[in-house]
Amino acid sequence: MRLISFAALLLLTTACAHQQVSVTNPTTPPENGQVSGPATPAPTSANTVDAVPARVAESDTTARPPWLKARIAEVLAERKRNPITRILRYDYEGQKVYYISAPCCDQYSNVYDTRGKLICQPDGGITGKGDGKCPDFEKRKSNEKLVWQDPR
């Protein structure tokens, strides 16, 4: 019985050793430069997910109003959000405004005046278009400055 098992194992090993197995992955370039054939072609597009925003806002070095410092403290007292909270300052309709990003999903982002009064919610919600009180915000905002972003 032992002789038969050894012979079967030897036969199986010999048969498998003669087969060529080619392993490729999506980043392996084609062997002959052509897309057709047994080789997997190299990817044809760039990565579509960026870990960081495409543009980085200039930092705001001015003093933060007390209400904004309090809002930052509230965010830091909560658990880290994904995406992280960012506060940007813009010029909008002749005044400086602060944009605070939404914590997640269908929630609204908020735009406040320099005294901390809510002006509008330009994006978020079920439609993604905010509360409708400043539908031109994206087009008319200017002079973007990064005031703060969660460092955690």
Describe the structure.
The structure is a single chain. With 152 residues, the chain is an alpha+beta fold. The protein has a domain at 58-149. Helix content is 21%, strand content 19%. Strands 1-6-2-3-4-5 form a six-stranded mixed β-sheet. A hairpin with a 5-residue loop joins strand 4 and strand 5. The longest helix is centred in the N-terminal third of the chain and has 16 residues, at 2-17. The termini are far apart. The mean pLDDT is 80. Pfam families: DUF6970.
DSSP helical segment count: 3
Radius of gyration over C-alpha positions, nearest whole angstrom: 29 Å
Which structural category fits the helices and strands?
Answer: alpha+beta
Task: Report strand %.
Answer: 15-25%
Strand order of the largest sheet: 1-6-2-3-4-5
Distance between the termini: 66 Å
Number of strands: 6
Average of per-residue pLDDT values: 80
Return the string of H and E elements.
HEHEEEEHE
Main sheet makeup: 6 strands, mixed
